Amino acid sequence: MEETISLQDLFKVLKKRFLLIVSITVAAMAIAAIISFYFITPIYQASTQILVNQKASEQPTIQTQDIQTNLQLINTYNVIIKSPAILSKVIENLDLDMTPGQLTEKITVTNANDSQVVNVSVQDEEAFRAVDIANTTATVFQNEIKTLMNVDNVNVLSPAVLPENPSPVKPNKMLNIAIAMVIGLMVGVGLSFLLEYLDTTIKSEQDVEEILDLPIIGLVSPIPDKMQEKSVSTKRKSRATSRGEKVNV
């Protein structure tokens, strides 16, 4: 016999396992909150901007060509900023206990399309150290690029600043809790349907028809306890009366 499940049956399962679904969802959110607030180390971010620009030319017609040259150099500058030649001096100036390779993982260098502004972002467990690394990296790069490429077209446009109450960029606690809620809800619903599928006990006449493929010709209704007590009492009185015994009411 082909088995079909109606939308009403699905809602019945969800209603029946509602407490299970809610419990799993709340538990997942609680675990995510505890891990996010107490176990994951917060990461702070600081950013500084570097402007790549040639000095003003005496021939205005060459300005467009200079800008194109600067844009082509930016990709090279992005590599140089994260090179050991720059980061080694940053580590030395700040007396950091890390290698250039470890420092590279903390630094991200980006620039918008057709923009002469390079953004240097640093992520660290300490907000003040992220600011120091970002500013020192920009300063060292500005000084060293004159020797490395024999150019003087780099200026610090916007140094990193330490705010009074820095906020970490990682972890995103609310996002983690929201993701945990969705995952907990999915697990709860899935587990509810799995338990319902594994439950093979017969609970209604519809179950009998589906399992045995036989029609229902009669039902035995449950007898309330009061009616059972009344029936037993009536039988006792009838027996006592037939034996001529006195019955106390």
From TrEMBL:
Describe the location of the Polysaccharide chain length determinant N-terminal domain by residue ranges: 3-94
Matching entries from Pfam families are given as: GNVR (PF13807), Wzz (PF02706)
Q: Name one GO molecular function term.
A: protein tyrosine kinase activity
Q: Which UniProt keywords apply?
A: Cell membrane, Membrane, Transmembrane, Transmembrane helix
Q: Give every Tyrosine-protein kinase G-rich domain span.
A: 142-194
The keyword Transmembrane appears for this protein? yes
Q: Mark the transmembrane ranges.
A: 18-40, 174-195
Name the membrane topology term: Multi-pass membrane protein
Please name the InterPro entries in this protein's record.
Bact_polysacc_biosynth/exp (IPR050445), GNVR (IPR032807), LPS_length_determ_N (IPR003856)
Homology family:
Belongs to the CpsC/CapA family.
Return the protein name.
Capsular biosynthesis protein
Q: Which organism is it from?
A: Lysinibacillus composti
Kindly list the organism's lineage.
Bacteria, Bacillati, Bacillota, Bacilli, Bacillales
